[in-house]
Amino acid sequence: MKDSFGARSKFNVNGDDYEIFRLDAVKDGHVERLPFSLKILLENLLRFEDGRDVTREDILALAHWDPSATPNIEISFTPSRVILQDFTGVPAVVDLAAMRDAVVKLGGNAESINPLSPAELVIDHSVQIDNYGTANALDLNNKIEFNRNRERYSFLRWGQEALDNFRVVPPNTGVIHQVNVEYLGRVVFDKTTDGNREAYPDTVVGTDSHTTMINGIGVLGWGVGGIEAEAAMLGQPITMLIPNVIGFKLSGSLKEGTTATDLVLTVTEMLREKGVVGKFVEFFGDGLDTLSLADRATLGNMAPEFGSTCAIFPIDDETLRYLELTGRDSSHIQLIEHYAKEQGLWRYSGQSDPLYSDTLELDMGTVEASLAGPTRPQDRIPLGSADIVYRDHLNPITAKRDSDGIAQVSLNKHNTEIKDGS
Question: Of 262, 341, 375, 393, which is most buried, counting CB atoms within 10 Å of its CB?
Fold first, then answer.
């Protein structure tokens, strides 16, 4: 690997030395003003610079990022890990097994085929509920599940034992994106390779669209297809354009009687109207001081609903509080804090705003209790207006026939065609 900027450096936390790639080693451009998410991408490029997939020019392009430019520069991003749900994850493991068979037929060693990035498969999508409403329902469902899918579980047990960098989260642990936030998210990786201890940001791609829930704890990640995830498992970088980043500034706090759901519906409505497909969304502002990690994860989880690639929050005191609450190791939490502060990835009150392609602002004190669409979350109805909207939809139907004899039925703003006899 190359190190054109001399970014490789030693970093000490509580007497332990780590190798890191310093962002401040890049003196060109405006690295200190980059959005939090692009700083994570920049560190990734510095660590994987090889002169082929990642070049010095790629790093400089990101350091000189023009917020107002149309994305046209392609970079290679190598995620730290891959998370799989069972419907798409099992075929990926089958492919690895097939590769091992092929290598053996060619006279090679089967053990040479392994995920190069840590891969974790969470069994949740295929689980069925056959019993409910009784004290022993969970036990009965477990027995039926393992008996019904005995062959698949035997195969996954083989995969977990035979493959390096692969583990399986059993059924009834939780849904994949929740398990990712509560148990699997590292925030900062602590990895030892050939006696060299490294620290670097946790980044992830997953085969669940709501992988973006992990954005709530400051981890850059999003959902991908099974083929992309499998390629990432085998060390293939993901090619992407340096994205536009939309900053969403939050101020104030939610008033009594409003919930994270009301905030999510309001934010979704605003971002749908803005148009953020293919863009990063990044939350910033002193309003984050009042926003719990659960609320942040809820907002990150909704990225597929408003169409952005991710919806990320920076690392701060609330991140550490949540990690402690969910039982993460105290020494690792200290590493996360020191690393984030050392690399300029830490959020604190009153800090200068990063550069963004565009911004939106929301005083959370103005958020109202709301009803969802329901099928489209952006069709938000403020609870205080629900009676008016309801009555409005009960107004008498008016109809007139067009020149073809088709009745044109109008219900306020909703227009429908109804043919005779329907």
Answer: 262
